[in-house]
Automatic annotation (TrEMBL):
Protein name as catalogued: Epoxide hydrolase
InterPro entries per UniProt: AB_hydrolase_1, AB_hydrolase_fold, AB_hydrolase_sf
Highest taxon of the lineage: Bacteria
Pfam families: Abhydrolase_1 (PF00561)
Matching PANTHER family: MONOACYLGLYCEROL LIPASE, SERINE HYDROLASE-LIKE PROTEIN DDB_G0286239
Keyword Glycoprotein listed: no
Organism of provenance: Marinobacterium mangrovicola
Gene Ontology CC: membrane
Family of the protein in this entry: Belongs to the AB hydrolase superfamily.
Keywords: Hydrolase
GO molecular function: hydrolase activity
UniProt domain AB hydrolase-1: residue ranges: 38-276
Gene3D superfamilies: alpha/beta hydrolase
């Protein structure tokens, strides 16, 4: 077992940049390319790859690749006129796997990332070994009757006059703003996310994310469509939910659609992998799941690094 100093050196992340569909996809790579296991991690809405900076070093001898989703962090925005549909993220990550020549990966997604990776697992069964959904149970949905109104809301947002980006004089103010966001986090967690989520502008700092990420979706999947994806996920699935998180009785019904699922509920908020008092529970839950899988490259490989 590695000590803190050795752990920090071995798992110090490397910046990663690739070209996907003509745009730069940036991210962080933890661990060695020679590690026996590769994990593709995907963050939540308005977060970035730094979301996994505390978790990755504690999963043992693995290579963990976490991209900033398009429009997030240090990745480029989509072209003018394009939108941010969940299925486009799936296509982006599929292309990234091909570019990196990753024939076999395990998927670990938080919130929005869990929804994206649940779809990727369903369409790439031959390349995905397992799926971890942390504080997420698949994509947001709409009923067929809501489709027209959903598109109207998106068109109204698109036609509204653009708002000037908020300019902050110092990073501490941005940290405080992120601390009290839609999903509150601690100051330490906020600093991690802000470290990849801002750009320097004349007179101060701005958020680096594309304002279009705040727009209503043009369309969403229906529950029946999500069910069709979930029923095709044959790999082992871990669902880790926090008692102060976003799960609802409606989303919990989706567990019945998964063939091989383990549910673990822990204490905490929506970002338990970024908080000091809940990180250990997340690490233990995920590492135990990896160790439990029979006949996989994880057998006796994953360990918790204190």
């Amino acid at each position: 077992m590695l000590g803190e100093a050795e752990l920090g050196e071995v798992m110090k992340p490397k910046e990663l940049k690739i070209q996907v569909n003509g745009r730069t996809l940036a991210g962080l790579e933890f661990g060695s390319a020679q590690a026996p296991v590769t994990i593709l991690a995907c963050h939540g809405w308005l977060d970035n790859a730094a979301s996994f900076a505390l978790l990755a070093p504690r999963l043992g001898d693995v290579r963990l690749i976490a991209f900033d989703l398009p429009g997030h962090g240090r990745s480029e925005w989509r072209a003018p006129g394009d939108w941010y549909a969940i299925w486009d993220y799936v296509l982006d990550l599929h292309a990234a796997l091909d570019l990196l020549e990753l024939d076999r990966v395990h998927l670990l997604g938080h919130s929005l990332g869990a929804g994206i990776l649940s779809m990727l697992a369903a369409v790439l069964p031959e390349r995905v070994g397992s799926l971890v959904m942390l504080e997420g149970l698949g994509p947001l949905t709409q009923s067929p009757a809501e489709a027209r109104l959903q598109m109207v809301k998106a068109l109204e947002w698109r036609l509204a006059p653009p708002k000037a980006p908020s300019l902050y004089q110092d990073l501490d103010r941005m940290v405080r703003a992120r601390t009290f966001g839609r999903f509150p986090v601690s100051e330490a967690a906020a600093r991690l996310l802000v470290s990849r989520g801002v750009v320097r502008e004349e007179g101060g700092y701005c958020w680096s994310h594309d304002p279009r990420l705040l727009a209503p979706s043009v369309a969403r999947l229906t529950e029946a469509e999500v069910k069709s994806f979930f029923e095709q996920i044959a790999q082992p699935v871990l669902v880790c939910l926090a008692d102060g998180g976003i799960a609802t009785p409606e989303s919990m019904r989706r567990l019945d659609w998964l063939k091989d699922v383990r549910l673990v509920e822990i204490k905490g908020g929506h970002h338990p992998h970024l908080e000091e008092d809940t990180l250990a529970a997340v690490v233990d839950t995920i590492a135990t799941f990896y160790r439990s899988m029979e006949k996989t490259e994880f057998r006796e490989k994953a360990e918790i690094c204190d």
